[in-house]
Amino acid sequence: MALKLKTELCELLGIKYPLIQGAMILISNAELAAAVSNAGGLGVISFNTAGRDPEALRAELRKAKSLTDRPFGVNFPIDEELIISYIQVAIEEGVQVATTSAGRPIVYTGLLKDAGMKVLHVVGAVRHAIAAQEAGVDAIIAEGYEAGGHNAPDELTTMALVPQVVDAVQIPVVAAGGIADGRGLVAALALGAKGVQIGTRFIATPECGAHPAYKQAIIEARDNATITHGRRLGLLTRSLRNQMTAEVLEMEGKGLSVDELVAYIGPGRAYRALKEGDVTEGEAFCGQIAGMVREMMPAGEIVRNIIAQAEALLAS
Predict the structure, then answer these.
(1) Full-model pTM
(2) Which domains does the chain have, with CATH numbers?
């Protein structure tokens, strides 16, 4: 069967191209989501991009609606404290798409779907994809170990994970992790996915709410610039190599307790890197694909370049 860019995902979400902008905590704001949606993809806002206040999310959603008349989504980590308050705001504001992660999809899928939202759940293993399908989600986002931020403990790569999830479920699958251009999109389609989710590439954009120093660190990153840590904590995380990750890995190697590790990392490391620009001692979430990010570029242009490259590959 010939591969095509108009897939079931486009029909499901009401978008032109099968491309979702991944929600990155603290920095996936209204401007970024609107730019991606206006270019034909699906922009996604992080629930906490405007701060830990449901009313701040409401203001961000209204800003997005003033910038685009196309569908956009919101990401909800299911196990986040008080996430139901943010979900209620999204329902009241008529958000059309929800991506959920970091928890059991059965908890909120029914509520979201009853409110008229399409629900896509992020998984890192086949068993979780099956559970999400049983919970009634509309599509699966199969995210490989290459992705930035928090990852699944099974450490399955995108190339291995996606086709196994495709074979295991009957709903559309979106590939995520290690994708930044049209080649990645075409590869995902060849694996049986109906689209892609891209995060790291959208950090180095004028619209993204990240600190300029963090954006520059992404641009300067090369193929081996990221590392994972947190196995001892049970919270596997991929970030840029820096002083903080080196110290955490050293502490894990010495067998320090979970309490000692938590005390060192503290609650604000990600904020320090993503919003304050401390890419030395902050938690600078970043996917392995950062080595392909060489310049700042408007989000809409990124979408158009990815689609043009994919179309050229499919035509060849």
Answers:
(1) 0.96
(2) 8-208+295-315 (3.20.20.70), 226-285 (no CATH)
